[in-house]
Amino acid sequence: MIIDLRSDTLTKPTAGMRDAMFSAPVGDDVFGEDPMVNALEEKISKLFGMEAGLFCPSGTMTNQIAIRLHTRIQTEIICHKYSHIYLYEGGGIMANSLASVKLLEGDLGKLTAPQIAAAINPDDVHAPETTLVSLENTMNKGGGSIYRLYEIKPIHKLCKAKGLKLHLDGARLFNALIETGENPADWGAQFDTISICLSKGLGCPIGSVLLGSKADIKRARKVRKSFGGGMRQAGFLAAAGIYALDHQVDRLKEDHARARELGKMLLELSMVSEVLPVATNIVIGRLEGISPEDFMSKLAAKNIKSVKFGPDLVRFVTHHDFEDDQLEEFGKRVCDL
Ligand SMILES: *Cc1c(COP(=O)(O)O)cnc(C)c1O
């Protein structure tokens, strides 16, 4: 049995999800006529108390569309130096929006309002105009760390006062909300736009949704077209999203419980000096006396897959297709590494 913990994107659609996809009524979404896409966009925007939603092929696209909406040429985005929008989107900020970035440091990938306030550029001929703050929840490179609502509110207030837009890369926002019990609508109220992935822990094969005001989503639809992301009978995919929202949100808790156990197992190993606090479904271990490559090949020899996540870091992500029997098996295989 291969235990594949490289990512929560590896999950395959469940039988129930496949049935929902196969039987979906569909239409041409570029004409606005796909009933399942319309239903998904409405369902998720209502849940977050936001006016409208836009279904897209990927979270990279939803983030990049949001960046296009909230910046212009020669403006600047404030984000953490470990942000997905900066590290893992192919240089899209520059390529798609001709914008600059100001990268901040912060514990477990998180930023605070005073830090952001100090990073806003002055109205000065030398400096690009700051127009956007982008946060990530959960924070992938922070070990799946969670922002709490009380941490967001002062940032929201600051952005309002300074006339800045606030975007959330909420690829794994449901992981955060299921853990804290906070209300999605309270989150929707803090942001101009939110991007949510259906293809991570929620277990869909494809898809992300961008949430925002009616006016922003109308513009976003045109940006999506120009990015080549207008899809036709996309209802087959949207049906998977609706199914996931109805049936596969609560179970994220199980992924978190297994991640905590997995973190403890790793910490037992002499080659692992530290495990970042496990808040959700991501476990990042710091290695000592062995390179990530060598550690990963020891694991691979035991049919366990992980990814390198820095010069001395490895990442494991728990997901839908990683169950208790595999967790137990993981423990047995790593104890004599
Ligand atoms: C996965 C992910 C995205 C989007 O990735 P896609 O593969 O393009 O869907 C965005 N932000 C974070 C933090 C992610 O983990």
How is this structure best summarized?
The chain is of the alpha/beta class. It has helices at 15-22, 35-47, 59-70, 84-87, 92-97, 113-119, 149-162, 173-180, 184-188, 214-226, 235-247, 252-267, 292-301, 324-334; strands at 3-4, 52-56, 75-80, 100-104, 129-136, 165-170, 193-197, 208-212, 272-275, 282-287, 304-305, 307-310, 313-317. The protein has 2 domains: 12-247, Type I PLP-dependent aspartate aminotransferase-like (Major domain) (Aspartate Aminotransferase, domain 2, 3-Layer(aba) Sandwich); 251-334, Aspartate Aminotransferase, domain 1.
Question: What's the layout of helices and strands?
Answer:
Layout: E1 3-4, H1 15-22, H2 35-47, E2 52-56, H3 59-70, E3 75-80, H4 84-87, H5 92-97, E4 100-104, H6 113-119, E5 129-136, H7 149-162, E6 165-170, H8 173-180, H9 184-188, E7 193-197, E8 208-212, H10 214-226, H11 235-247, H12 252-267, E9 272-275, E10 282-287, H13 292-301, E11 304-305, E12 307-310, E13 313-317, H14 324-334
Parallel strand pairs: 1-11, 3-4, 3-5, 5-6, 6-7
Antiparallel strand pairs: 2-8, 7-8, 9-10, 10-13, 12-13
Helix pairs in contact: 1-11, 2-11, 3-10, 6-7, 12-14
Pyridoxal-5'-phosphate binds at residues 58-60, 63, 84, 136, 140, 169, 171, 197, 199-200, 208.
